[in-house]
Design a protein that fits this description.
The chain is of the alpha/beta class and about 210 residues long. It has 2 domains: about 1-30 and about 110-200, Rossmann fold, CATH 3.40.50; about 35-105. It is built from 9 helices and 5 strands. The protein has helices at about 20-25, 35-40, 50-55, 70-75, 80-105, 135-150, 150-160, 165-170, 180-205; strands spanning about 5-10, 30-35, 110-115, 130-135, 175. It has a 5-stranded parallel sheet, sandwiched between helices. α6 (about 135-150) crosses α7. The model has no long low-confidence stretch (mean pLDDT about 90).
Length: about 210
């Protein structure tokens, strides 16, 4: 469990700019705990996670160099709910545990936990406050098509599988509008950084319940 740390859960839909926002907080010396980075680490070559996955699916999900073949694994769980649930039940606790360990060993004034599916996977229960990076669906579609070289239909399919924009906004404690330029973004991050510093300081001097 997280021990009296002020943790900001940063989330947003695809191509909303979560990484950009997180990196702006990092410029203030704030530690980032990134669920996507950890998700890659728990299945890297030689990891317990990859060993269990290989035992379950066989060596065909490995590349010649022993690394995980992500495309092969995706094909195993795509449209197979049983296998997808098995994989999630293996990896999600590993990812969660590593996130908690990184938060508890962090030394910055507060911590930014970057989790794309923060609300969908109920990981908002691990954080002190939530911050949503918000852009319009139209911008999400155009940015994702440009960034990933995918079709509009593919992006719309991804959007349909995620929480809606309004649901995310309704759950958010704080919202960053990422539809303007980088200067607007920096000013919003600067304001929130000061707020989080103040709230983290207040949390640290509260007596234990």
């Amino acid at each position: 469990m997280i021990n009296k740390r002020f943790v900001v859960g940063l989330t947003g839909g695809i191509a909303s700019g979560k990484t950009t926002v997180a990196n702006l907080f990092a410029e203030y010396g704030i530690q980032l705990v990134d669920a996507d980075v950890i998700a890659r680490e728990v299945v890297q070559k030689g990891s317990k996670g990859l060993t269990i996955i290989t035992e379950h699916f066989g060596n065909e999900i490995l590349l010649p160099d022993g690394q995980l073949d992500r495309a092969a694994l995706r094909s195993k769980v795509f449209n197979n709910e049983v296998q997808r649930l098995w994989l999630n039940s293996l990896l999600h606790p590993m990812i969660r545990q590593t996130m908690l360990e990184q938060v508890n060993t962090s030394t910055s004034a507060y911590v930014i936990m970057v989790v794309p599916l923060l609300f969908e996977n109920q990981l908002d229960s691990l954080v002190t406050t939530t911050l949503v990076v918000d852009i319009s669906p139209e911008l999400q579609i155009s940015r994702t098509m440009q960034r990933d070289g995918v079709s509009q239909q593919q992006v719309e399919h991804i959007l349909a599988s995620q929480m809606s924009r309004q649901q995310r906004i309704d759950k958010a404690d704080h919202i960053i509008d990422n539809q303007g330029d980088i200067n607007l973004l920096r000013s919003q991050v600067a304001r929130l950084h000061q707020l989080f510093l103040q709230q983290a300081d207040e949390l640290s001097i509260k007596p234990n319940d």
